Amino acid sequence: MPSYTRRQAVAGIAAAGIAGCLTRPTGLDSLDELHGEWPVAGGTVAQSRAVSGGPDDPKEVWTTELSDVRGAGTPAVVDGQVYVPADAVSDRARNRYRLYALSGENGSERWQVPLRASPNGSPAITAGRILVSGKRETERGRLVAFSEPYGDEEWLYDIEARVTAPPTFDGTTVYLPDWSGTVHALSVVDGSVTWSRQVSTDGEGRTFPEAAAVGDGRLYLGSSSGRTGVIAVDAESGETAWARSTPRVTASPVVYDGLIVVQTDTVVRAFDTAGEELWAVNLLDQNPWRPAPAVDDSRIYVSRGTTTHALTRDGKQDWTYERNTEAKHPPTVAGDAVLVSEDSAVTALDRTDGTRLWRADTDGRGEVITVGNALLLTDSSAVTALGA
Fold first, then answer.
1. Could you tell me which SMART domains the record lists for this protein (predicted)?
2. Based on the structure, what is the number of domains in the chain?
3. For the chain, N or C: smaller number of CB within 10 Å?
4. What whole-number distance in Å separates Cα of residue 142 and Cα of residue 160?
């Protein structure tokens, strides 16, 4: 059952002693109201990292320095607001981790609240709730829900296992897998448990370190140790629909138009929704980073080492692009462009042939979050918005 706590109003938090810890937006301009959303890790509940459009040849519009922050996480964007989890340890802050809400137009702070766990990736935002998963301790996790307008803590749910995945959702149900091989399905509204089920076969355990992908009434999960492989689970009941053994899965599965894309170390694999493996492509490299792929209606985009690969939906190499730095972050599809992070820049490639469309200089070095008229990136203590 979820653990309920007293709601904390923003005014009460401010009175508790965070004066002097406010953010500092800089920049000479502001964006129009943000068009579009990035409400969950991976941009969509399918983990596709593909949105319908983005700005053309954008320039930096604003940067907000988060005071006393030493690590700004990947944001989520809903209703024109930017929600950023952060490590905010300082002599003045009572809580080490915090969640910041910023205006998407100019980066000004709307509110900040304490997080009683070390956050895992982007928040998930749906049905008026901001959902953040985190680690209480190495082998103990937590899921916390805040109200979207003001950041009041609504409920929390403790998990007696390691949790490193960010949450995802389907309507008013939030899903969170853990390292014991259990998937937790909760009501977004009040945190009540819809179901909680350990996914195992023949007594062999699984671990789920990454987010689930949601599509067509199923969750798709990747196990990285124990009995490794990809598993399809019914979203309503938690019953296993099928499971396929593979080497360890190193990123969240992606589901797009009947194709399930799974990354197993250097090999990218594709399955159909019945669990039949369609193809496997080995993209050899020595880089320890294995960023998640992006998938659209015609290609799969994978960054390995200094190369970004575009594969067709039947697993053929279509084009490649050589970046000026090794990949630490996944590509993002924004309309007709594929966005890749380079050294102090974001580069847009034509998704049909990989030719460069534009390059935008930026101090942001994190994952590229895209909405219709803006790109958002974080650095160690700052959030930067670029717009056309």
1. PQQ (SM00564)
2. 1
3. N
4. 9
